[in-house]
Amino acid sequence: MRLDKLLSNMGYGSRKEVKLLLKSKAVEVNGAVAKDVSMHVDTEKDAIVVYGEEVIYTEFIYLMMNKPPGVISATEDKKDETVIDLLDPVAQHFKPFPVGRLDKDTEGLLILTNDGHLSHQLLSPKKHVPKLYFAIIDGRVTEEDVKKFKEGVTLDDGYFTKPGDLTILSSGEVSEIELTIMEGKFHQVKRMFESVGKKVTYLKRMRMGSLQLDETLELGDYRPLTEAELEALQQKE
């Protein structure tokens, strides 16, 4: 890859700005000051240093975010703050996008990446990637609800859902539950409970496929996926 393309891709500025970097002797390749922006480098073998700091070339970015309420799962919006707005400039440079969506008032696990192939694999209905949610329900959740969810329920638009695995954590005037579903229709968890006459008052996604929310992440915080987490997700392919 051309040196100027690599540095530009890594956020060191436009091709023109990278040229100025080289003029100021800020860039070294394998210990020698780089003078030609068009020189080709091997991203795996050559040691590229800018201002004394080694550049590790990365094509894709994979982040786990604990999405806060009030923020929308989109790359841009004229009215509301988006999950991309929560990222630092370096992460934003890679132009990541959310894998699927969480409703504006829903919290929890959200994957952000610029890897379209992985996103497709995780969202494809054919892959049956399970998603685990924790919810607080206004109303008494019963074993009858568990049975109905296991069979699938009819949503307000007539759509009949695939089976959902509902676990009651506590049942009363206010109930706490966990629900695993294989699809991600618009407001699906809320609409499933509406179909049995109950209302979701709090919703948090805990897991997507093999990836579990890192509970040390505060709302709005994010971190790169570990190699093990990424490999486990990719094995779903």
TrEMBL record:
Cellular component, GO annotation: cytosol
Alphabetic keyword roster: Isomerase, RNA-binding
GO biological process, one term: enzyme-directed rRNA pseudouridine synthesis
One GO MF term attached to the UniProt entry: RNA binding
EC main group: isomerase
RNA-binding S4 domain mapped to chain residues: 1-60
InterPro entries: PsdUridine_s_RsuA/RluB/E/F_cat, PsdUridine_synth_cat_dom_sf, PsdUridine_synth_RsuA/RluA, PsdUridine_synth_RsuA/RluB/E/F, PsdUridine_synth_RsuA/RluB_CS, RsuA_PseudoU_synthase, S4_RNA-bd, S4_RNA-bd_sf
Family membership noted in the UniProt record: Belongs to the pseudouridine synthase RsuA family.
Protein name in UniProt: Pseudouridine synthase
Organism: Paenisporosarcina quisquiliarum
